[in-house]
Design goal:
single chain; mainly alpha; about 0% strand
Length: about 80
């Protein structure tokens, strides 16, 4: 479920050059066109969708570098 949610939020907020549904989980989202501003929108979208809050130490380029890294971050926050 988390991967589907992440992909949906990416589709809505990331402004990627490719379809978020077809990007490999380990592909570089920044190379796929996601800007820093879009990363913030993705973070906010995930917080709203999943009722979580990213702590300051997770607010970095690495956390939002791939679908896999976003899933790992979300899973660690969701317990």
């Amino acid at each position: 479920m988390t991967e589907q949610t992440v992909r949906r939020v990416l589709t809505e907020h990331a402004r990627l050059d490719a379809d978020a549904q077809t990007i490999a989980v380990d592909a570089d989202l920044h190379a796929a066109g996601m800007s820093s501003h879009a990363s913030v929108n993705v973070m906010l979208g995930l917080e709203d969708e999943l009722d979580i809050e990213f702590p300051d130490e997770m607010l970095n380029k690495q956390t939002f570098s791939s679908i896999a890294s976003i899933i790992a971050a979300v899973d660690s926050l969701a317990g």
